[in-house]
Design brief:
By secondary structure, this protein is mostly helical. Helix 4 crosses helix 7. It starts with a helix and ends in an 11-residue tail after the last helix. The chain is flat, with a radius of gyration of 62 Å. The longest helix is centred in the C-terminal third of the chain and has 227 residues. Keywords: Coiled coil. InterPro entries: CACF_protein (IPR052270).
């Protein structure tokens, strides 16, 4: 570690030396530039300068010069204030005129919008209700016909909505009948499946009876009629013994019950088929009649609708022509009024313009006089100022020369001392910072090692506990899995009893 510290200190010293060399070179360049500028100032100084020793005279001349300048400035300010006041008044009245014009335009726009809105409302009312003109024309004996036509119109509209409602109801009913038919088909399919199952069960029962009959002893065979004779309805002498076996009585009872059920199912099936056929015929007849009536109504409604549309189109055309005529008249009247109004305003503006032109000519003449006097005064002042400036420049030049030399010496000394101080400060600061950084790094490494060891121990302990609990709960998990498999097996057996052709999904298996 000590060797690393020594290497780093040597590197830091080398960097500080390089920095000091660069700084010295840059300051030398700056000093050379300043000295060259000073020589140029000395070479370019004024040659013809008249020296004046009397300082009191210079002060008096300067006071007079400032007073004359103040007077000229005050006169200019007065002229500008007069001109600015006039411009401000003109701007004010121009803004007022502009706001009035905008308000008038807004009022006109709002009136036009209101008129358009009222006209649209009138058009909608005309389309719904009969107009006043039609009522006046129908006063001489035609009022009854108008009322009848209006009633017919409202009736036609109501009939259109009624037909729509009826069509919607018919669609709903047809969908309901389709659903009812589908439900019946599903029930029939279910009954067919039941009959097939009953037939299969009967055949299985017969096979079982035959096998039992084959296994029975001779005495039992003599006391029981064979199953083949029962199927063929053959009369055979019954040899009855004193004791009848219970199994045979049970089989007879089951066979009779199955036969009764089968007969009942067949009768129900026939009744359902007859009902279906009658309902289907009834629905077809009703549907044909309803379709014919609906077609007639639709044709009548279409004819009436066309007639009403033609009448409405004719009335709309008449109202449109009247509306266009009134708009043309109003437009012509509005244009005449606008021409009169704005021509009078233009006339007044032209009069105001002529007055302003006369005033502007007078103002221009006064301005020319004032400007010419001002320029003459400025030229006189400039000639005097040149003389004063030459004297002031000589005095300021000598003063600046002395001050610059002294400032240059002070600056060079300050820069040298600052460079030495900065280099020493940087070297000490770097050494301290490096020592502190090295200590902190060592501490942090020790802390990190301790934390990592603690974390490893904690992690291993947690893993051991987790695996211990999992090992402990393993028998219970195995038992649960076995119970699930047993439940699945039982359910599959029950399903196979009901549906022998059932095959479970490979994913479930």
């Amino acid at each position: 570690m000590n060797g690393d510290i020594i290497i780093l200190q040597t590197k830091a010293n080398f960097a500080l030396n390089a920095k000091s060399i660069v700084l010295t070179e840059s300051f030398d360049k700056i000093a050379n530039v300043t000295l060259s500028d000073h020589h140029t100032l000395v070479l370019n100084k004024p040659e013809k300068i008249c020296k004046k020793t009397e300082t009191k005279d210079n002060k008096c001349i300067r006071i007079k010069r400032t007073t004359t300048e103040n007077r000229v400035v005050n006169t200019d300010k007065q002229i500008l204030t007069i001109y600015s006041d006039k411009m401000r008044i003109a701007k004010k009245y121009f803004k007022l005129w502009k706001t009035k014009v905008k308000q008038k335009r807004k009022d006109v726009d709002t009136k036009e919008k209101i008129v358009k809105f009222l006209e649209e409302l009138k058009k909608h009312k005309v389309a719904v209700k009969p107009t006043k003109c039609e009522k006046r024309e129908n006063e001489n004996g035609q009022t009854k016909q108008c009322s009848k036509s209006a009633k017919k119109r409202y009736q036609d509209v109501s009939e259109i909505y009624k037909n729509r409602f009826q069509a919607q109801q018919d669609v709903i009913k047809s969908q309901q009948t389709k659903l009812y038919e589908q439900e019946k088909i599903i029930e029939d399919l279910k009954l067919g499946i039941i009959t097939e199952e009953t037939q299969k069960s009967l055949q299985n029962g017969k096979c079982e009876i035959r096998e039992i009959f084959k296994r029975c002893s001779v005495k039992v065979k003599c006391s029981i009629t064979p199953p083949e004779a029962v199927e063929k309805n053959v009369d055979i002498i019954e040899l009855r013994t004193s004791k009848v076996p219970k199994i045979m009585a049970e089989l007879d009872r089951r066979a009779t019950e199955r036969a009764i059920r089968r007969n009942i199912i067949l009768e129900k099936k026939k009744i359902i088929e007859e009902k279906k056929r009658k309902e289907y015929e009834f629905i077809v007849a009703n549907k044909k009649a309803a379709d014919d009536e609906q077609k007639k109504r639709n044709l009548e409604a279409i004819k009436e609708k066309r007639r009403l549309e033609n009448e409405l189109e004719r009335r709309r055309q008449e109202n449109r022509n009247k509306y266009l005529e009134t708009i043309n008249k109003a437009d012509k009247f509005h244009r005449k009024k606008l021409k009169r109004k704005y021509f009078n305003a233009f006339k007044a503006l032209m009069e105001i313009k002529t007055e302003f032109e006369i005033k502007s000519d007078l103002f221009y003449e006064n301005l020319l006089k004032k400007k010419s006097l001002y320029i003459w005064n400025v030229n006189v002042k400039e000639n005097l100022e040149k003389q004063y400036l030459d004297a002031d420049c000589l005095y300021e030049y000598k003063l600046k020369k002395k001050i610059f030399k002294s400032w240059q010496l002070v600056l060079i000394l300050q820069k040298q001392s600052m460079q030495v101080a900065e280099d020493l400060y940087d070297m000490r600061l770097q050494s301290r910072a490096f020592i502190e950084w090295h200590r902190n790094v060592c501490r942090q490494q020790m802390v990190d090692l301790k934390h990592s060891q603690i974390a490893e121990r904690h992690y291993k302990r947690r893993i051991l506990v987790q695996y211990f609990y999992q090992w402990k709960s393993l028998p219970a998990v195995i038992k649960l899995e076995k119970a699930k498999e047993e439940k699945k097996r039982k359910w599959r057996e029950k399903v196979w009893e009901i549906i022998p052709d059932y095959e479970p999904c490979p994913e479930m298996v």
